[in-house]
Structures are given as structure tokens and as C-alpha cells.
């Protein structure tokens, strides 16, 4: 589908690459809270993907490309499922982080 949307393709590609680069840098910052930060970053990234697929669905429908919209809807459902999975883990991950912090446990690298 993106081959038919050249302008949107380059803009979306740059947005994804730029965002991915930021997430890569965040994921590799050495800190004892990196698992918690990664959890938050992953949750944020899933919602960025959800927004991107919703935009792709709107583009596909506007351009009369039902197959593209269907493919984007399938991907959207996967991203929403992953976001829900992560959502359930934010509080437990935070509590585990605080318990480890209180116990003086540090991350090994
Ligand atoms: Fe995702």
C-alpha cells in the first residue's frame, strides 16, 4: 500500500526512524531504572504505532484502497493488543522497581 503513497511513505518513514532512534538511545542508557524506562518507552511506542495505523487507515479509505485499509486494521489490532499487554505490566514493573530500589539492588550490565 505504501508504494502508492510515496509522499506519505517518506514522511512516515522519517517519523518512524527518528522515533526509533530516540527509543534506541533511551533503551541503551545505563541506569538502574532501565527496565522501568523501557516499559514506559515501549508503551509510548505502541501508541505511536496505533496512531500511525489509524492514520494509514484514514489515508487508505480516502484514496479508495480497501485492501490497504484492511491490512492496516489487522496491524492496528495487533498494536492495540500489545499496548493492552504492556498496560497491565506498568504498575507491577513500577512496584518491582521500587522494591528493588528499596532493597538496594542495582542493575547488572
Ligand atoms: Fe508494536
Give helix % range.
over 70%
The chain-level structural class is mainly alpha
Q: Low-confidence runs (pLDDT<50, min 5 residues)?
A: none
Shape: elongated
Mean residue pLDDT:
83
**Tally of extended strands?**
0
**Helix count, per DSSP?**
3
The molecules bound to the chains, other than polymers, are: fe (ii) ion
The arrangement of helices and strands along the chain is HHH
Q: What characterizes the major β-sheet?
A: none
Q: For the terminal residues, how far apart are their CA atoms?
A: 42 Å
> How big a fraction of the residues is strand?
under 5%
Radius of gyration: 18 Å
Summarize the structure.
The protein is mainly α.
Written account of the structure:
- The chain is mainly alpha-helical and 109 residues long.
- 81% of the residues lie in helices and 0% in strands.
- The protein contains three helices and no strands.
- Helix 2 (34-62) runs antiparallel to helix 3 (66-102).
- The longest helix is centred in the last third of the chain and has 37 residues, at 66-102.
- The mean pLDDT is 83.
- The protein binds fe (ii) ion.
Fold topology:
Blueprint: H1 6-27, H2 34-62, H3 66-102
Helix pairs in contact: 1-2, 2-3
The structure holds fe (ii) ion (FE2).
Fe (ii) ion is lined by residues 46, 49, 79, 82.
